[in-house]
Amino acid sequence: MRLPVADDRRGEMDIAIIGAGNVGRALAGSIIRAGHAVTISASNPAHARAVAQATGAQPANSNREAMQRAQAVVLAIPTPALEQVLAGEGDALAGRIVIDATNRVDPTNPGKMIDGSSNAEYIQQRIPEARVVKAFNTALAARMDEPTVDGMQLDGYVASDDEAAKAQVLALVGAIGFRPIDVGQLSMARALEAMALLNITIQMQHNLPWEAGFRLVGPMGRTFAE
User: Fold this and answer.
1) Phi then psi for 172, rounded to 5 degrees?
2) Helices 45-55 and 22-33, interaxial angle, to 10°?
3) Kind and range of the H or E element at 65?
4) How many angstroms separate the most distant Cα atoms in the chain?
C-alpha cells in the first residue's frame, strides 16, 4: 500500500484523529488552526460528526475511512479501546506516523500503572511497521486547546525511535502552541505516561479544574525542536 505523503513545501499534513472525546475535540481544533487538515472518527459516528461541526474537521464513518488520506494518525482514545483499534486497523497504521496520546489511569491503584511499560511501546510492538511517536499526553484537554498559562507556553514532550517522524511531530506540537521538547527514545514514553498519571491524580485528589500542564524551567537555552 502506498501511503500519502505530506506537502513538505508548506508543512501541511492530512491528520486522522481516532477518538472524539475531550482530547480528540481539543486536538482537532488546535491542529486545524495550525493549518492542517483533520478527519475525525469515533466508535459512535454521531460523536465524530458533532466534533467535526464544532471544529471544522471532516467527519468519518469509520476509523479506516478517517485514515484513507492521512500521513499521521492521532490515537485519542481510552486505553481500554486501544486493543480493539489495533486489532481492527493495525494494517492501516503500518507505515504511518502514529501519534499516541493515550494514558493508563487507575484512580484506585495508580501505582499499578507505573510498571516499566507504556502504551506507546505496546503499539510499536503490536504494529512494528508503524512510526510510533508519543506526544500530547501530559497536558489535559483544556491545555491542548490553549497550550499557554499566563502567557507562558507549556511543554509538549515528544518521544520516538523514528527520528524523521519525531521531527514532524515536534513541528506539529510547536505549531499548535506548545514549546516542543524532544525527550529521546520511545522508551521515554514510560516517563511521559507517569507524568500524565501524576497530573490526572492531582486533579482528582484536590478537585482542581482539569486545566494543568507541565513546563520545565531553568537555563534551557534554545528550543529543543531547533
Assistant:
1) -65, -45
2) 40
3) helix 63-66
4) 49
Would you call 79 helix, strand, or coil by DSSP? helix
Per-residue pLDDT tens digits for 42-53: 999 999 999 999
Domains of the chain: 14-206 (3.40.50.720)
Instruction: Express each pLDDT in 201-220 by its tens digit.
Output: 999 999 999 999 999 988 76
Residue corresponding to grid cell 458533532: 50
Tell me the one-letter amino acid at 189.
Answer: A
The pLDDT tens digits of the residues spanning 149-177 come to: 988 999 999 999 999 999 999 999 999 99
Burial code (b: 16+ CB inside 10 Å, e: under 16) for 127-153 equals beebbbbbbbbbbbbebbbbbeeeeeb
pLDDT band at 14 (very low <50, low <70, confident <90, very high): very high
Distance CA 147, CA 177 (A): 6
CA-CA-CA-CA torsion sign (114, 120, 124, 126): positive
Q: What secondary structure letter does DSSP report for 61?
A: S
Q: Is 112 left (phi over 0), alpha (psi -120 to 50) or beta?
A: alpha
